[in-house]
Design a protein that fits this description.
elongated, mainly alpha
Length: 63
């Protein structure tokens, strides 16, 4: 999922298309985190969500 997010950032997409893909990927990562909330794997997904949030906000401020 991390790789998919990196690919999303590298693609030349329109803002609406990029936002839709980001939302879809965000939901997938969030669902994965919730599905393993009782295990240590959830922390990896939560860290990914935090990274995605920071990188997405930075990218949006650049444009």
């Amino acid at each position: 999922m991390s790789f998919a997010f990196s690919e999303l950032l590298a693609q030349p997409l329109s803002r609406p298309e990029a936002a839709a893909r980001f939302e879809h990927l965000w939901n997938e990562v969030n669902d994965a985190a919730q599905s393993c909330v009782d295990s240590d794997a959830a922390f990896s997904y939560i860290a990914l969500l935090q990274s995605m949030d920071q990188r997405w906000r930075f990218l949006r401020s650049m444009n």
